[in-house]
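Try it yourself: sequence plus D-gluconic acid, in.
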Amino acid sequence: MSVKVACVVKERCEIGEGPVWEEKEGTLLFVDISGQKIHRWNPATNQKETVATEKFVGCAVPRRSGGYVIGEGRSFGALDWESKSISTIAVIDEDKPNNRFNDGKVDPAGRLFAGTMAIEERPTVLELKQGSLFSLNKDHIVVKHFNQVDISNGLDWSLDHKTFYYIDSLTYTVEAFNYDINTGSISNRRMVYKMDEGEGIPDGMCIDADGRLWVACYSGGRVIQIDPQTGVRLQTVKLPVDKTTSCCFGGRDYSDLYVTSACKGMDEADMAKQPQAGCVFRITGLGAKGIPANSFTG
Ligand SMILES: O=C(O)[C@H](O)[C@@H](O)[C@H](O)[C@H](O)CO
Ligand SMILES: [Zn+2]
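Structure, out:
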């Protein structure tokens, strides 16, 4: 089997992010952060539905009771897809009006973890150490886990739920914490992977069914597979765009890797060289599979 990369969603996002495969519907949910949109694309029909948000939207995740929970501006919100209406669940970073939510994901117990960052002047140019990592539980109680984050980004949990993996992009590393699935608390922060020269900035990530991490490399034009146990990179897959932002497995058997990308900050000459910047790609033939996404409980 050979690895193939195809551009599948050809309408460009400014900052495509946060892909989530919804198994029941067979659809891919993803956000356009600065484009202020949430998209839901059906690969079988190539139909795409879109909900516009009022602020930058960092993440959107399925909710067990229906609809979605989103991280928009400095709020966790509830989105009803049919009416396209959004109501506020909780506000965070009230002392930091220039902050916004970035990437988020639901843990195996149904809590939403999502982090913040200062709004960028342009890609990667922002006030540093302004972000924090938060979680929202089923009772809508918000926990702040730590602060001093530059760009809160990719996250996922190990298959045994005992480890939480996390990326603060400008550290150029992937980190791990011990995870207590009963309480949702994290401890014992350590580095598991340091980006190599030329790999770019670590952005979104997801775990595969063998416990390896797939990391989208912003300004690296690639996704890499790393073994968090050994810190070794196992595979590199290059894409035809530099600003690869995040990835998730989906499709039949979870064997397709969907990769989002961005074009924000590119000028006309850059766009001419990379006309697919901002599109969503599908990588097949990887010989790896993903696991189903968790839904927010409550
Ligand atoms: O996609 C994200 O997570 C951020 O919101 C983006 O702004 C870029 O990725 C960032 O500039 C590089 O890390
Ligand atoms: Zn990201």
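One thing you can check immediately is this: Residues 75 and 119 are 14 Å apart (CA to CA).
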